[in-house]
Amino acid sequence: MYRSDFCMAGVFRDAYLFRDYHRMKAFFLLVCLLALFLYLIRHFNLISTYPPSFFGTPSAADLCGGFIFGIGMVLGGGCLLSTLYKLGSGHTVSAITFCGVLFGGFVSAAFYPMFRSFAASTVLLGDKTALEHIVGSAGVPVLVTSVLAASLALRWARKGGWSQPAYARGYLPLWKASFIMAFVIALVVAFSGRPLAVGMGYAKLSGIVGGLFLPSLTGKLEFFHTEAPRLLYGRIMDGGAGPAFDSVALTQFSLMAGVVGGSFISSFKLGEFRITRMPPGRQAFSAFLGGMLMAAGALMAGGCNLWHLIGGVPLFALQSMVFALGIAGGSFLGAVFIRRAVIR
Amino acid sequence: MRQAAEDIVLDIRGQICPACLMITLRELNSNKEKLKNEKARLVVKTDHRDATRTIPSAAFAMGYRVSVLQRDKYYEIAMEYEK
C-alpha cells in the first residue's frame, strides 16, 4: 500500500476533484478479483457459513454511516487504513487524523445505543443480507462482475489506462498492488474465515486510552462492554470494543501494527522516512475532524471502509453495498469542503 | 532548451493529501504568463509519493516539461513550459 499509495479516500476524491480515475480503476479491479477469489474460497468450503453471518441486514444507518465516513476520509486525508501507512512513514498530518479517530471513537461510543436503535428501526430489505437472496443465485453476481471487469480491464489496457508513470523510488503500479492485495486478503479470509477490518481495533484503542484518562466515564459507556462470540480460525472467540485481549485485539491490532511497521520499513529503505512538519492550521483541523467523522461513521455502519468495501462488497453483502453508496456521496461532499474551505 | 531565469519554489511538504496537486495547479495557473514566456519554472517540494504520479501527469497534459528528483527525504518536481 505504501509503495503504490493505494489510498481508498483517493478512489472517490481524485475522481471528483481531478477526474483522475486511476485509483478508482485499481479499486474496481481489487473488488472484482476479490469477488472471484472469495467465491472460489466458498466453493471449496473455506468460509464455513454463507452468506456470512457477520454482515447484517442493510439499514439507513449503513447509508448514513457510509456518508459520514466518506466526508471524514476526504477531510482526514486518508481512510482508516491509509492513515496507518502514512503514519508509519512519518506523516504528522496522519498522526493528527489518527488522534481524531481515537477521540471520535470515544465521543461516538456515547451515541452507540442511539445508532443501534436507528439501525434496527430503519431496516431496508427485510431479512435479506446478501445479493444472492434477491437474485436467487450466488454465482450470477460473480459471473456478471467477472465478465464486466475483464471487458473493462481489456478496454482500459488498449487505451493505456493502467499505466501512468510515477517517479517515486520503488513505486508499485496501482494495478499490481490490486493483484497483490486481492491475493493476500483472499488468503487471510480463507484461513481466518473473516474479512479484514481495523474499525473495531481503533474503537478498542480509544476505549483503552479513554480508560487511562477518564476511567469512570469509560466504564459507564455500554459500547466499551460489548463483547460477542466470533468465529475465527475455526474457533469461537469473544471480540468487541472492551479492553479485553480478544479476537479484535489479536487480529485488528496486529493488522494495524503490521501496516504501520511495514510502511516504516518501506519508507526507511527507500530513504523517505522522516517526521514531517506540522500542516497549516486549517489542514490540521480538517485532519482531526475527518478522523472523528470516520470513527462516527464506522460505528454507525457497524464497520470501517476495509470491512465493507473490500470485505462485504466482494461478498455481495447488502449492508456493505449500501455503505458503499453512502461513502460515494459523502466523499463528494468531502471533496467540496476540502476544495472550498481547507486547501486555500 | 533555454534555462528559465527564475525558480518559483513551492514547498508543500507536510501538507494534507491532495493539497500537492491542488496547490500546484493553482500556482501553474497564477504564474501562467511567466512560465509560458520561459521566464520562470515552477519547482515543487513534496513528501507525498503520489505527487510524483499526479503532478507530472497533469503538468505534462498542460504542455509542461517535467523532471523529478529525489532529494533528502522529499521529491523535487520541476516544471518548465515547452514551446
Give a short summary of the structure:
The complex is a heterodimer of chains A (344) and B (83). With 344 residues, chain A is mainly alpha-helical.
What labels would you give this structure?
heterodimer; A: 344 residues; two-stranded antiparallel sheet; 2 strands; B: 83 residues
If you had to describe this structure to a student in words, what would you say it looks like?
The complex is a heterodimer of chains A (344) and B (83). Chain A is mainly alpha-helical and 344 residues long. Chain A has one domain. In chain A, 66% of the residues lie in helices and 3% in strands. In chain A, strands 1-2 form a two-stranded antiparallel sheet. In chain A, strand 1 and strand 2 form a beta hairpin. By secondary structure, chain B is an alpha+beta fold. Helices cover 34% and strands 33% of the residues of chain B. Chain B is built from 3 helices and 4 strands; from the N terminus they run βααβαββ. Chain B has helices spanning 19-30, 32-36, 51-61, and strands at residues 6-11, 40-46, 64-70, 75-81. A 4-stranded mixed beta sheet of chain B has the order 1-2-4-3. In chain B, a hairpin with a 4-residue loop joins strand 3 and strand 4. In chain B, helix 1 runs parallel beside helix 3 (51-61). Classes of the chains: A mainly alpha (344), B alpha+beta (83). Chain A binds chain B through residues 2-3, 5, 7, 9-10, 13-14, 17-18, 20, 22, 77-78, 86, 91-93, 164-169, 171, 271-274, 276-280, 283, 286-287, 338-339, 342-343, and chain B through 13-19, 21-23, 47-50, 52-54, 56-58, 68, 70, 73-75, 77.
